[in-house]
Amino acid sequence: DCGSTLAQSMTYNFDTSTYFRKRCLDMMDDQWEDGHFPSQSPEMDGQRSCIWSDAVLTMAWTSWLNYGDKRLLNETFPAVRKYIYLLMSNYEKGTVLWPEHNGDWLSAFMTIRPGAKKWGDLGEGHISKELIQRIDLIYITKLFRDIADVLGKRQDSETAEAFVSKLFSDPIIAGLRDKEPETGAQTAYALSLGWNAAKPDEKPLLMEKLLNAIELKGGHVTTGTISTLPLLNVLSGNGHHELAYRLAMKPEFPSFGFMVDQGATVLWERFDGYIPGMGINPSPMNGLNHVGFAAVSEWIFGSVGGIRPDPLVPGYKHFSIAPRMGGKVTWAKSDYNSVRGKIACDWKVEGATFSMHVVVPPNTTATIYMPTKDVSNVKEGELQLKNASCATFLHVENGCAVFNVESGEYWFSSYL
Questions:
Q1: Cα 22 to Cα 25: distance, rounded to the nearest angstrom
Q2: d(Cα 69, Cα 24) in Å, to the nearest integer?
Q3: Taking the CA atoms of the chain, what radius of gyration do you get in angstroms?
Q4: Is the per-residue pLDDT at 174 higher than 70?
Q5: Dist. CA 357–CA 349, nearest whole Å
Q6: Is 0.90 surpassed by the pTM of this model?
Q7: How open is the CA angle 404-410-412, to the nearest 5 degrees?
Q8: 11, 23 in Cβ contact below 8 A?
Q9: DSSP label of 304
Q10: Which of 43, 59, 185, 391 could make an SS bond with 213 (beta carbons 3.0 to 4.6 A apart)?
Q11: 325-332 average pLDDT score
Q12: Which residues pair with residue 335 across a beta bridge?
């Protein structure tokens, strides 16, 4: 699952260009004759599961997005095509999509519920296999379509697009609009929205249902290693960054803030790795230094730090700087060593003033999202934005002045 859910998080922190190629080749070596990829590689137990087996697509695409190099897309395309066409065939025939199923690992059904006094008192049941598999199938088929577009594979792109349209009418997918899942609602709505597995006109309704699902659980997350990142991204990207911050950093279990308050200096494998008064979780699957939930790093870099690649202009030839304020965070410093040079964003709030220092590498451009109540208050240095030759104003969006800049070093400020 790491190659599927942590690809962008790993790339923010490390140069993954050669690592992703190596892992893709491993999975291609282990690809089954029918087209399935294994859930783990080197293959250990013969499992083939949704999401976990998708890693070749996500690693190859993330490599393209961050490094602008088509070679891995080209190298993996025949294997990826075989995988997607197998899944499309299985769906059309009504046979099993993936023989095994791991689901949303370490979500509420595998951990104790908030307030539990014994280890066996687990949370709600998991999202249904049929639902999460169809959500994932929409997600990876769209990803395959995008890869085909980049490589000029028009027929494959059109086939994938037609299949996605068919999946949107699937009764199980359509049912999300009408009825809340009996279990795993947060996972279902977070993945549908975060993985673009919903039609545009359905998204406001699903967003409302997601907020209700969080409220019904007393403001606690029930998501696992697969869906916690989409949950946070969806909330932050749809005007609920404050809620995303609270869910991530609340002092009560389950949250990342709870881990920190219990003395953790690295991420635990599970939210209930240690509970005060109960001690260390006796489960044999309880690492206190584990990568599973590290996908949260993508949310930190992209939403708090504000540095985001542009899928339309890969390799950071163009990118966005769009930090979000929330919770007790009044400043953040982030930088990323892109293939085109260091990108930096250093912002802080002092009283009613928001200031941001930005570095845009040579031969690149960036779209800046500057929080403000009034565009006329935005400045670069001592100049108002409208008088600054370095910036081209675009529009106002969600309380931000949006403008483009070319390479350089900038000191922006505004009043909140």
A1: 5
A2: 15
A3: 22
A4: yes
A5: 12
A6: yes
A7: 80
A8: no
A9: I
A10: 185
A11: 91
A12: 344
